[in-house]
What we know:
single chain, mainly alpha, two-stranded parallel sheet, 2 strands, 48% helix
Amino acid sequence: ALLDRGDEVIIVDEMNDYYDVRVKENNLKLLRDKAAEIAPGKDILTIYKGDINNQTLMHTIFEHHHPIPWVCHLAARAGVRPSIQDPLLYVQANVR
């Protein structure tokens, strides 16, 4: 919906392998294609591969794309069993 409106969309995804990375890559390709179709020649979609807990990366993104009027956090880690094995990783991604 955001791309359909012509909004600039910035995605940060670490591309972890909990779900098939090929599916994620395909989804990103679909978004790139949609952005190119909606706004040819304009950069309305930017994709960063990285961890949202990387403060240097996030600072760089916010500085480069200033101002960013809205943030929608969808970066929670999935999986109950892995969260029991490594709870701090899940706290960092899902809570902090």
